[in-house]
Each structure stands twice: as C-alpha cells, then as structure tokens.
Amino acid sequence: MSSPRYRGKSSMESSGSEPPVSPSRYELQKRRDWNTFGQYLKNQRPPMPMSHCNCNHVLDFLRYLDQFGKTKVHVPGCMFYGQPEPPAPCTCPLRQAWGSLDALIGRLRAAYEENGGSPETNPFASGAIRVYLREVRECQAKARGIPYKKKKKKPTTTEMGGGREDSSSSSASSFGFP
C-alpha cells in the first residue's frame, strides 16, 4: 500500500476506472525527435554513441535534415531572391524552415537532459548551434525579402506603473511565449 503522503498514481499504476494519462503532442514529438537523432548517430560510420556526441554532430544533423525540407529558399543569384511571393517557380532548393529547426533544437535540448545528460555538456545548447540558427533565420529572411524583427514584449500594467497586472496577460507571456 502507498504511503499516506503520496496520493498520485503513475500511468502504469492507474486503476481500471481511470484512463491512463497519454503524453502530450509535445512529449510525443520530443520522443520522436530524440529517437530520430539517436538513429542518425547510429547510422554514422562508425556509429556514434550519444555520450560522444558534440555540437558538430548536431550541426551535421541539421544540415542532413535540409534534404527533407519544404521551404523554398531562394539563392542570391535567383531572379526571385528577396521577393516574398515570387510570381513563378524556380529551381532554388527546399530547406527546413528556421522555425522548425529552432523548435526541434528546443525539444532535443530538453530530451538530452531528461535522458540523463548534463546541462553543462548539452550539445544542443552550444553557442555554435545558436549561431547556426541565427544565420539560417537571417538567410531565409533575406531570401524572402522580409527582415526578421524580434517581437517586443508588451509591458504589463504593473511594469507601466499600474496597480495590478492585466488579467488577459499570463506569466508565460512575459517570457516571450504566446
């Protein structure tokens, strides 16, 4: 019998009357991404154990994923370079969108630590990864002719000197999340 202080049940212990809690879409995607990266490392010659993985392997993985991308990125010599909505097709390559890569790195960064990796050695948290993502973002923005502008935080009423925080803003929004 469980101790009186512990009242929760894991998904493995749930009784017949309660359905087990299924993982969120984010958790499922994070697991898929983690497994895909692990498979990528295993397919290297020679196979690369996760414990020896560094930011260069992560960068190679991101470049490898470009072949499966669906975002047209015009090259500087293309007649449509810098046009947000080109009037005709061209032969420029399809790449992974910056936002997809950024979200992927966020999930892999979390998965690395959840799977026993140390935050200090997390290859997904490397400065080289941040630089690569910034370069991809800027390159894609120039190719589309749309400059990337960082969204500014909306100040809450408490930050503007008001009495209480606006009820429509959440604590998450102060960290740049919707």
Give a count of the beta strands, DSSP E runs of length 2 or more.
Answer: 2
> CATH class of the domain at 25-144, anyone?
Mainly Alpha
Roughly what fraction of the amino acids lie in strands?
under 5%
Q: How many helices does DSSP assign?
A: 4
Helix and strand pattern: HHEEHH
- Strand order of the biggest β-sheet: 1-2
Organism: Raphanus sativus
Main location: nucleus
Family: Belongs to the plant homeotic and developmental regulators ALOG protein family.
Biased composition (Low complexity): 168-178
Structural description of this entry:
With 178 residues, this protein is mainly α. The chain has a domain at 25-144: DNA polymerase, domain 1 (Orthogonal Bundle), CATH 1.10.150. The chain has four helices and two strands. The chain has a two-stranded antiparallel ribbon with strand order 1-2. It is globular. The model is unreliable at 1-14 and 162-178 (pLDDT under 50).
Characteristic key phrases:
single chain; 178 residues; mainly alpha; DNA polymerase, domain 1; two-stranded antiparallel sheet; 4 helices; globular; disordered N terminus; disordered C terminus
Can you lay out the helices and strands and say which pair or pack?
Elements: H1 25-42, H2 55-65, E1 71-72, E2 94-95, H3 98-114, H4 127-144
Helix pairs in contact: 1-3, 3-4
